[in-house]
Write a structure and sequence with these properties.
This protein is an alpha/beta fold. It has 8 helices and 17 strands. About 20% of the residues lie in helices and about 20% in strands. The protein has a 7-stranded parallel β-sheet. The protein has a 5-stranded antiparallel β-sheet with strand order 8-10-11-16-13, covered by helices on one side.
């Protein structure tokens, strides 16, 4: 097995880690959260040496999973998994191509796995030799440096995924030694925020462990000082800035930001011959997130040579074509005012990106003086909506075709000929005589 070497010395040029008294996390500035919500759609990338064997990142490692007792055992022996980095040489990796693909898909931000549960670092951490820049790794280049720089060149916001659990590190959840691991974790977070920023969004992945496992209040306090506009998720044991439903669509929630993270294929890391989800599924998932006032972070797992599977790249570009035509109804919008009834809830454990069933037709987004109706299904020939305290001054079909809209004191009736209904999302644009944000939420019975 590979000899493990970890360093807890202060980083060159960095101030020593400062211990803060536990305090309630103040959260990111409201303006920073609103800018992130405006983006609505991001690219998630899970990648590392495990792509060589095509199994799931972290979870396919057959070793002990400290802190986890349930689940199926990994299939790749530890002595194999932990040495895959000695063969990792993605010579076809082009960070600018990845960023260009994200832009072509209509994605506004990118979140990359700097370190997953397997402990391997895709960046030049000074605190470990288990990293892509190790002399033992034939590639030897700082992937996080290359990709974060490419994001800035390409106008895509940079985001970090970082796993606090580390099944490779000997001190992780190992009795009194875990205190050393906490300093290791804090040190790597400091490295990532100091050396690779500015960073827009941070995705922790703590496997529902308590905040004490990470000294989370002190950790987030440090992060907020280093990057005041950073938006942080809820997986460090404290709420932070946003919720993270995984492999399922979140429900309408406008009192607290949220983001669905989901795979385009069937697993997070590269899997050979893994077909992408259908275009209709992807579009409807994005729409359901937007009408629910949430974001969608859609994941791909690049191949071991650094290329993204052509079928996955093609699907992303198809989503981009849709957004190129109808993105005004997604970007910089907020969910509502028409939202699903409370009783129309999805199953307790819905399938990946499953759209809620029942007779609910879709939902709406809004911005300025406009409401966009996203009709995913037509329960009747005419879509009947409750009344709103605003007058509709103009209506059109954003997706093209004829439309009839009738507004009375009793409600709103929308009719679109069958031939004019979009197969994934028929988008109706209703222009009002005042701000749509003034319209209270309307739950259809």
């Amino acid at each position: 097995m590979t000899r493990r070497s970890f360093c807890l010395m202060p980083l060159a040029g960095a101030a020593p880690l400062i211990r803060f008294a536990p305090a309630e996390d103040p959260g990111a500035p409201r303006a920073a959260i609103e800018r992130w919500k405006d983006m609505r759609f991001g690219l998630f990338i899970h990648w590392g040496p495990v792509s060589i064997v095509g199994t799931e990142i972290g979870w396919s490692r057959a070793g002990e999973r400290r802190g986890r007792k349930e689940g199926r055992p990994g299939t790749v022996p530890v002595e194999v998994y932990d040495n895959l980095y000695r063969m990792f040489n993605p010579v076809r990796f082009d960070p600018d191509e990845w960023v260009h693909l994200a832009r072509s898909a209509g994605m506004k931000y990118l979140v990359f796995t700097t370190k997953h549960h397997d402990g391997f670092c895709n960046f030049d951490s000074k605190l470990t030799d288990y990293k892509v820049t190790s002399p033992k790794c034939p590639y030897g280049r700082d992937i996080v440096r290359m990709l974060s720089d490419a994001c800035r060149r390409g106008g895509v916001a940079w985001g970090v995924y970082y796993s606090q659990p580390d099944w490779y590190h000997p001190d992780y959840l190992n009795g009194a030694a875990h205190a050393r691991y906490i300093e290791y974790l804090h040190g790597q977070v400091r490295e990532l925020l100091t050396n690779y920023g500015p960073t827009t969004v941070w995705f922790f992945d703590g496997l529902a462990r308590p905040p004490e496992d990470w000294d989370a209040p002190r950790l987030l306090r440090m992060m907020r000082q280093l990057e005041p506009n950073l938006v942080i998720n809820n997986r460090a044991g404290i709420p932070a800035d946003y919720d993270t439903p995984e492999q399922r669509l979140g429900r309408f929630q406008n009192h607290r930001p949220w983001e669905t993270c989901a795979t385009l294929g069937s697993q997070w890391a590269y899997k050979p011959d893994d077909p992408p989800k259908s275009l209709e599924t992807c579009i409807r998932a994005l729409v359901c997130c937007a009408v629910g006032d949430g974001n969608l972070l859609l994941n791909v797992g690049p191949r071991p040579d650094g290329l993204i599977e052509p079928s996955h790249a093609a699907r992303l570009r198809e989503i981009g074509v849709f957004l190129g035509k109808y993105g005004e109804s997604i970007y910089s919008t907020r969910g509502g005012p028409f939202v699903a009834p409370d009783e129309d809830k999805p199953p307790e454990h819905p399938g990946p990106l499953q759209v809620p069933g029942g007779r609910w037709w879709g939902g709406s987004t809004h911005r300025q003086n406009v409401i966009y109706l996203h009709v995913l299904r037509w329960p009747d020939e005419v879509l009947r909506l409750p009344s709103i305290p605003r007058k509709i001054v103009r209506s059109s079909l954003l997706t093209g075709g004829e439309i009839s809209v009738r507004q009375t004191a009793a409600g709103i009736e929308v009719s679109v000929p069958v031939a004019g209904r979009h197969p994934a999302d028929t988008i109706v644009k209703l222009e009002l005589d005042g701000p749509a944000s003034d319209v209270p939420l309307v739950r259809q019975s």
